Every structure is written in structure tokens, then in C-alpha cells.
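# step 3/5: fold
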Amino acid sequence: LLMPESNRESRVRNQYQNYKTIKAARGIKIAAKNLEKSMAGLPLFVGRKEDEVDYFKNEIQNILKNALNSIKLQETGVYVQASTLGSLEALLEFLETSNIPYAGINIGTVHRKDIVRASAQLDRKPQWAVVLAFDVRIERDAQDYADSVGVKIFQADIMYHLFDMFLVHRE
């Protein structure tokens, strides 16, 4: 975990200090292998021995499981996809206050399997056969499949833009 010296800009080439732990939101650089397996919004642990790695895997799985289990899905509703756990929680809270039900959730890139899950609404209430993709990429085959089965995908990096697109679709 590398962080620039205090009161220094991280984009400017300068000396970085090495840290064992960092708490709170800070601008840092992480130098490590397999970072693509990490998930934004969750703790990042370093395990040097095999038993440490197994322990940290279980820790992360429990943290994610607890967070996702606290989310109450509806029988019918939109499918929500976000880039991080925090942004997913924020979007779900916004949808709740706007009385928009959600029947499925996921974190990360929109894949074909997400469209398959969203397409379950086509048999129940077709107006909910929608994926709200917040700050995420959409794989080409996912978009193609959505187009072929009639699932709408709305993608935006700003929550309110996503909401506005959905409202236009609903009316």
C-alpha cells in the first residue's frame, strides 16, 4: 500500500510511503498481483501463507454475504448492477425511496447471465424487464442477448441520469 507524502498530489511524480494498513477513504496506489480479483468497496487483505489466504477468503466472503443478505429483493422489479458494494447500496436506497422495486442485484460488469436473470420479469411483468447499470461496463454478448429477448439496459455513471432514463421508459 503506497501513499504520497502528506499534502502532496498523487498524480505528481514523488516519493510514496509504504503502509501496512490504511483506513478511511484515501488516495493510494496498490502494488500487488491478482488485483483484478479484488472488489472495490470491500477490505483488501494480504495473506502471505496459505492458511492466511484461506482465512481472508472466508472473511471477505462473509462480509459480502452479510451485506448482500441484508438486501431484501422483491418478486418483481428491475435488475440492478453497480460497480461497488457502496454504490449498489446507495442506488438501492434511492430506488426504495422512489418506490421502484428490485428483484435482482449484482456487482461488476454486466454479463449475459445478468440479462438471463432480468429476463425472468418478461413472464411476470414485462415493464420490469430492465437492467439499471450504474458505473459498469456491459459485455457485448450481454447487450446482444438483451436486444434479442427484449430486456432494456440503461447505463449511466450518474445515479439521477439512470433514474431519469428509467422513468422515460416506464411512461
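# step 4/5: annotate
The mean pLDDT is 86.
# step 5/5: archive (pending)
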